[in-house]
Amino acid sequence: MNPNLAFLNSFISVSEGTFTELEAITSFRRVPAGTELVGLGDVPSKIYMLVSGIVRCYLTTESGKEFNKSFYLPTCFFASLTALIRKKPSIFVFETISDCKIYEIDYYKFRGLCKIDDSINTLYSKVLEGVYMKYESRLVELISLDAKDRYLALREQTPNVDELIPQYHIASYLGITAVQLSRIRKKIDES
């Protein structure tokens, strides 16, 4: 079975015909590390399906400080969803951390298919449910866990995170400095 079809089938059962409809509004790209897929202020039109590599989502303060909101690892969907829905400029930047293979899906054509194909509409709902659950889990971590426990939770979710993602990006994601992360890692290694 096509691995992309298998991934979609992890949400709902997708027929070959539906898969063909989705392929028609999708394009494949190899993207080098350091590429902005969505820039600050861009009005996006794509949903992305990451099949290899790592992408980060971040925002920048007026002083120029970056805060990582999310990391995306294969296989998953990502997008500047609020900007897509509202057709407004994105407040987030989506940037490849490593070389990536992605599929770009035209969001507006996809939404058009949702109106005429119940299975695609159900797929959209299931993907959004998954995104919301991840967002809710991240929010609970930020509110209820200290930096060490947030780091341990990240390591549990992505066991090899320290080899995949630069430490300064991990520190930003945790809301701490790289020095603080180094101290946390040292204490964990000593225990």
TrEMBL record:
Family annotation (Pfam families): cNMP_binding
Record InterPro entries: cNMP-bd_dom, cNMP-bd_dom_sf, RmlC-like_jellyroll
Highest taxon of the lineage: Bacteria
Occurrences of domain Cyclic nucleotide-binding (ranges): 10-113
Gene3D superfamilies in alphabetical order: Jelly Rolls
Protein name: CRP-like cAMP-binding protein
Organism of provenance: Seonamhaeicola aphaedonensis
